[in-house]
Fold this sequence. Notes:
Elements: E1 2-5, E2 17-19, E3 32-42, E4 47-61, E5 67-78, E6 88-97, E7 99-108, E8 114-117, E9 122-126, E10 135-143, E11 148-156, H1 157-160, E12 161-162, E13 172-174, E14 178-182, E15 186-193, H2 195-204, E16 218-223, E17 243-246, E18 248-249, E19 256-264, E20 266-273, E21 288-295, E22 299-302
Parallel strand pairs: 3-11, 9-13, 15-22
Antiparallel strand pairs: 1-22, 2-5, 3-6, 4-5, 4-7, 4-8, 7-10, 8-9, 11-14, 12-13, 15-19, 16-17, 16-20, 18-19, 20-21
Amino acid sequence: MNRSTQIFAVSTLAAALAACGGSGDGSSNGATGNVSVGLTDAPIDSLTAVDIAFTGIRLKPRDGDWIDFNYDEARFINLLELQGGITEPLLTDEEVPAGTYEEIRLIIDNELSSVSATDGGTYSLAVPSGEQSGLKLKGDFEVTADESTSYTIDFDVRKSIVNPPGKALGDYMLKPVLRLVANENVGNLEGKVDYAQISSVRLSDASLANCSDGYEGSVYIYEGAGVEPVDLNVDREGLNPLMVVPVAAQETGNLYDWIAAFLEEGAYTVSYSCQSDNNVSDETLEFDGTQNVEVFAGETTTAELITLQP
């Protein structure tokens, strides 16, 4: 395992904002700081686009009223374009009261949001309470006086979008799984998978399950070292991967690349499966290349090559 330095920076593309902050003050002494909030996404395989129409963002100081930033017009963001460390700014260097904040809400236009699938169709996306109260992200974060503070919201589409029976509200439903990280505390994790070698070994060994047809597999990231890998099931209580990252073919060569971005510093377990995984049911997957890795803030850690020994 090796490390290479890579410092993160949130994109400086300015959003069209009209601030209409509440009367409360999140700082006891009137001090202010600047805050930037970016958006990124964990990938999903069955969709080709997830277009969300954002109309604003709200910040809640612990000791003050809501601070609202309303966009002049809806901002359409395809979440699937925000992968591998790519972000889209929601707030850029906005001055707000310094202090502790306890909640962020993302306001969206339900009717203007949609998804596109691999079958070529475009489908409605129901977002309960998306327009009224917004998508809620609770948990304390700090804005330091006289400094600029940058955060990123990881919007995990793979865990958030379900295809509900009955489709009463829409073809697909958004049950948002959001994660807020301070940019100064995160790093990247990347690696390569020898898919051809793994697939060949599995085909030649009757005791092993074959790779799913037309699916090159995904890398599963778990918090902590020594975790026994399991599939993803958003309805399961208990262990689930922090994120599931699909592998991507290189322009040349037989190896497949993968990258997991915006991971907080610490220990992780990495594993790979070439069997397809439904996010709302239990599957018995077979995993390859399970290993422990360490992520460091501001750096990219490279995991060992994932193969399957015959």
